């Protein structure tokens, strides 16, 4: 992995991976390819890790919006959906603990192989948050997506780095759809 | 994970897999089924599924915690058992050795007498058995000297006397006592202090016993050479560290003045040897001495030359042995009663040790250590029966921090009256709350006076040590606040979350000194209830006594709120005309109707909140050319004195008098802009954090820096705990560190 020099430099005065990602997002959050493209010499594990952190961060915003709507006493089709908000919260908490834990990620400039494998499971859980929001709180999902294109980013991200299998992506939004027409769905 | 199932189903199916291994799959489904059945009942409506889940999760977590605790206890008890067994074995070995030594001494004495007699009288002295003593006899046999038929009266008497003294010294008795005590300890009976009846005047010794601890630090370096020479081979599980601490316990180096009766008597015994043989010194030759040596197999390395030097050396050795033995006994009682005092006293005793160590020469050390190492102990500093707490600074391997305490989900209601106020991002509701929480204050003046003496002493302590690193935020932490009384910290971060941390329950860490603390609760809501500000809120100040909250915002206003109602602000101070944007605000501790605010343009002013007038502007050294560097990042009010302290972008910290507005003191505090300030509740120390990645502790009287910490990223906030001994720093690297 030719990351030693790259990350060493990144550590010093140049912005780290996190700053780079955030910069790109702020610049244009719909330009997903740019956001997902790692800079030269960037270690892929670190890149994935930092992206996941950013996703969790932004998903908090979605969770906040959801929690106003997703209450136990609002009418859902089946009671089994009520834990969704708790699931969301637990997942985000768990992801925060995991991604921040010094046991799995002792350093932010190099990621252990064993921890990289676990990134996939974190992605799967996060994906469920998206899918629940899409299927049950479509309006919120749509608004949020139009603002920051988070779902598009996330889907392309997991596809690009093979963190999840295609079969798991049940939300019927085509990855090729770039612009904010996230309402399209194919039956 | 079958995600091919429909969306409506997958949550319950995937609960087992998700949620961080909570293992609630079957329970969730059962609960869901139960809830579905009772969905119609209004009376059951309160049993919400999330509530059930929460409860179950709490119970489960609690069970896990208890189970972990039991495991820990069991491991501890097992360790205790092993330790005691080892001790017992060691005791037996020690006893064996001592007995062996006695036999050797006797044998040597016999030989000597035989030689002497032969030389003097030309005949063989019939002493009965002259064979070297067998080494594997037990305690009953050491005095198998038979009465001599043909000896002179003096010899006979001498022998008897020797034997008598040895018995009086009571080696065997003592060892028996020790053994019985050990067994009792193993069985859990508390050993009685009165068992030490054959420890004469040991009181002074008790005080010194702990000094032994550090005697052995010295000795262990000597012992390092001897470990190969150890002749004992049936010690199990002996480790270097164990030996070190064990020898610490075992040995007691008394000050030379306090010899006890036993020692004196025994040593007097040797005097007669000297006097009786003085006259014969010239008839002995060195050759005999060397010849003697070969036969002599006792541990005394020198020959049994009857000359004064050897006698004294032997005396000393005997003394040491006595003390060593006494140390054995000491151990059993103190071991049970004062396990922890050793550590504390060891530090003081170390100095005393140094001058005593010059006494014994190397061979003596050899002997003593060889003897003592035979005893196999684990660290004596095990917990006495039933004392569950031990200082976390314990050095011993057994007591590595192994508390499997996990964080219990505290429900810490944010609405409790005397707790905290969160800073709220005041972006308009239609916007996404991408702003940052920049200000967070907890101030409970009513409680700040509960500062007891213990804390005072700790506050006067010179150094703070890092204790926890709180990692859970995704982005830099902007603000910190401690709970007024509980050991709870809240951190606010650029990732739009607040996290609450319980500083007492910590997850076990590997070996690092900083422990990870899991956040108890993550607050995610960011739509603040305070309506009124139209832009980011930079700072807050809360007064519990008056139920008032002050906020300053990027929209240029300072607002005063009544915390009992969320209605519009009580008063607004609109100051963006002349003073710029208020960056920080604080209530003046010495005058409850005043507040002090600092502005981005470099001014600091005191306002009267009731008249809504600006009272005075604190003197500031501004000229038009230096505007950009004058931004004031933080202002705080001293808790007891009428002083305001400001942190500047130009690296300075300035102190102002509230009454006159004059600058009292100004100092360059950091290498870069100073971002945050905190004063300890006593008003003795100031802590400042800066973009230069360091925080510094200052003594407020002398205005000197007493400690500095350096981190990897710049520090955004620092805080003192109002009543406990914690300080915290918040960094741009999303880590909060807590120091004690």
From TrEMBL, chain A:
Protein name: MOB-like protein phocein
One Pfam family linked to the record: Mob1_phocein
Binding site for Zn(2+): 70, 132, 137
UniProtKB keywords: Metal-binding, Zinc
Gene3D superfamilies on file: MOB kinase activator
Source species, domain of life: Eukaryota
Keyword Flavoprotein among record annotations: no
UniProtKB/TrEMBL annotation, chain B:
PROSITE patterns per the UniProt record, alphabetical: WD_REPEATS_1, WD_REPEATS_2, WD_REPEATS_REGION
Main location: cytoplasm
Pfam families: Striatin, WD40
Domain of life: Eukaryota
UniProt cross-references to SMART domains, sorted A to Z: WD40
Molecular-function GO terms, alphabetical: armadillo repeat domain binding; calmodulin binding; protein phosphatase 2A binding; protein-containing complex binding
Subcellular location per the Swiss-Prot or TrEMBL entry: Cytoplasm
UniProt entry keywords in alphabetical sequence: Calmodulin-binding, Coiled coil, Cytoplasm, Phosphoprotein, Repeat, WD repeat
Domain Striatin N-terminal per the UniProt entry, residue ranges: 48-176
Residues spanning the signal sequence: none
SUPFAM superfamilies listed in its UniProt record: WD40 repeat-like
InterPro entries hit by this protein: Striatin_N, WD40/YVTN_repeat-like_dom_sf, WD40_PAC1, WD40_repeat_CS, WD40_repeat_dom_sf, WD40_rpt, WD_repeat_striatin
Coiled coil: 67-115
Cellular component annotations (GO), alphabetically ordered: cytoplasm; dendrite
Start-end of each WD repeat: 470-511, 530-562, 667-708
Sequence segments annotated as region (Disordered): 124-150, 378-398
PANTHER family, alphabetized: STRIATIN (PTHR15653)
Family: Belongs to the WD repeat striatin family.
Protein name as annotated: Striatin N-terminal domain-containing protein
Organism listed in the record: Capra hircus (Goat)
């Amino acid at each position: 992995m030719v990351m030693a020099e790259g990350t060493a430099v990144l550590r010093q005065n140049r912005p780290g991976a996190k700053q780079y990602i955030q910069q790109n997002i702020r610049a244009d959050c719909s330009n997903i390819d740019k956001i997902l493209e790692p800079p030269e010499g960037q270690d892929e594990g670190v890149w994935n890790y930092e992206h996941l952190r950013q996703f969790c961060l932004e998903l908090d915003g979605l969770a906040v919006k959801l929690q106003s709507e997703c209450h136990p006493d609002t009418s859902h089709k089946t009671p089994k959906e009520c834990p969704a908000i708790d699931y969301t919260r637990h997942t985000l908490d768990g992801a925060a603990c995991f991604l921040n834990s010094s046991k799995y990620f002792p350093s932010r400039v190099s990621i252990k192989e064993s921890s990289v494998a676990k990134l996939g499971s974190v992605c799967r859980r996060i994906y469920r948050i998206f899918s629940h929001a899409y299927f049950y709180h479509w309006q919120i999902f749509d608004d949020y997506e139009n603002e920051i294109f988070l779902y598009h980013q996330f889907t392309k991200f997991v596809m690009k780095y093979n963190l999840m299998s295609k079969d798991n992506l049940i939300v019927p939004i085509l990855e090729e759809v770039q612009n904010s027409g996230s309402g399209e769905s194919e039956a | 994970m079958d995600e091919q199932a429909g969306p409506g189903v997958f949550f319950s199916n995937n609960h087992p897999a998700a949620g961080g291994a909570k293992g609630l799959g079957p329970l969730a489904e059962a609960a869901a089924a139960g809830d579905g059945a009772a969905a119609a009942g209004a009376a059951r409506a309160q049993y919400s599924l999330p509530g059930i889940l929460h409860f179950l999760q709490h119970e489960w977590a609690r069970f896990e915690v208890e189970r972990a605790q039991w495991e820990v206890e069991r491991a501890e008890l097992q360790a205790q058992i092993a330790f005691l067994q080892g001790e017992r074995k060691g005791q037996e070995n020690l006893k064996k050795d001592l007995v062996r030594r006695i036999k050797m001494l006797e044998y040597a004495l016999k030989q000597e007498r035989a030689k002497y007699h032969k030389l003097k009288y030309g005949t063989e002295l019939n002493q009965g058995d002259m064979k070297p003593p067998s080494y594997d006899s037990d305690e009953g046999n050491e005095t198998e000297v038979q009465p001599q038929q043909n000896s002179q009266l003096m010899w006979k008497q001498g022998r008897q006397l020797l034997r008598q003294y040895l018995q009086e010294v009571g080696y065997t008795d003592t060892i028996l006592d020790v053994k019985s005590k050990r067994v009792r300890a193993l069985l859990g009976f508390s050993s009685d202090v009165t068992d030490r009846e054959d420890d004469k005047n040991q009181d002074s010794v008790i005080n010194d016993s702990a000094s032994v601890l550090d005697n052995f630090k010295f000795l262990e370096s000597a012992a390092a050479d001897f470990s190969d020479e150890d002749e004992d081979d049936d010690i199990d599980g002996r480790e270097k560290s164990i030996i070190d601490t064990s020898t610490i316990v075992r040995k007691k180096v008394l000050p030379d003045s306090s010899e006890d009766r036993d020692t004196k008597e025994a040593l007097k015994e040797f005097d007669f040897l000297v006097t009786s043989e003085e006259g014969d010194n010239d008839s002995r030759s060195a050759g005999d001495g060397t010849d003697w040596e070969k036969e002599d197999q006792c541990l005394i390395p020198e020959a049994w030359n009857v000359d004064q030097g050897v006698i004294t050396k032997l005396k000393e050795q005997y003394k040491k042995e006595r003390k060593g033995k006494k140390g054995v006994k000491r151990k059993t009682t103190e071991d049970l009663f004062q396990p922890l005092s050793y550590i504390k006293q060891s530090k003081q005793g170390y100095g005393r040790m140094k001058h005593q160590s010059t006494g014994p020469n190397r061979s003596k050390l050899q002997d003593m250590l060889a003897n003592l190492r035979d005893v196999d102990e684990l660290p004596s500093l095990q917990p006495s029966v039933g004392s569950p707490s031990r200082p976390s600074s314990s050095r011993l391997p057994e007591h590595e921090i192994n508390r499997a305490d996990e964080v219990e989900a505290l429900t810490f209601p944010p609405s409790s009256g005397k707790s905290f106020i969160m800073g709220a991002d005041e972006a308009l509701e239609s916007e996404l709350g991408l702003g940052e929480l920049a200000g967070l204050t907890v101030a409970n003046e009513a409680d700040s006076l509960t500062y007891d003496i213990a804390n005072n002493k700790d506050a006067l302590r010179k150094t703070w040590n890092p204790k926890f690193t709180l990692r859970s935020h995704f982005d830099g932490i902007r603000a910190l606040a401690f709970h007024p009384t509980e050991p709870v910290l809240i951190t606010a971060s650029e990732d739009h979350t607040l996290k609450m941390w319980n500083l007492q329950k910590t997850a076990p860490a590997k070996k690092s000194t900083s422990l990870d603390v899991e956040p108890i609760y993550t607050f995610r809501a960011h739509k603040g209830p305070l309506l009124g500000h139209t832009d980011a809120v930079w700072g807050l100040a809360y007064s519990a006594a008056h139920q008032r909250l002050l906020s300053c915002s990027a929209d240029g206003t300072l607002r005063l709120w009544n915390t009992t109602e969320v209605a519009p602000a009580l008063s607004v101070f609109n100051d963006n005309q002349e003073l710029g944007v208020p960056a920080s605000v604080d209530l003046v501790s010495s005058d409850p109707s005043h507040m002090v605010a600092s502005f981005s343009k470099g001014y600091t002013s005191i306002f009267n909140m009731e008249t809504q007038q600006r009272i005075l502007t604190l003197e500031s050294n501004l000229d038009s050319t230096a505007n950009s560097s004058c931004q004031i990042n933080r202002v705080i009010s001293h808790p007891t004195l009428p002083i305001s302290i400001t942190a500047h972008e130009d690296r300075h910290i300035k102190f102002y008098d509230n009454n006159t507005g004059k600058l009292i003191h100004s100092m360059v505090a950091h290498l870069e802009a100073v971002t945050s300030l905190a004063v300890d509740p006593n008003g003795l120390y100031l802590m400042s954090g800066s973009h230069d990645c360091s925080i510094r502790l200052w003594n407020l009287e002398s205005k000197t820096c007493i400690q500095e910490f350096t981190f990897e990223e710049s520090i955004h906030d620092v805080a003192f705990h109002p009543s406990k001994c914690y300080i915290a720093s918040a960094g741009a690297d999303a880590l909060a560190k807590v120091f004690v």
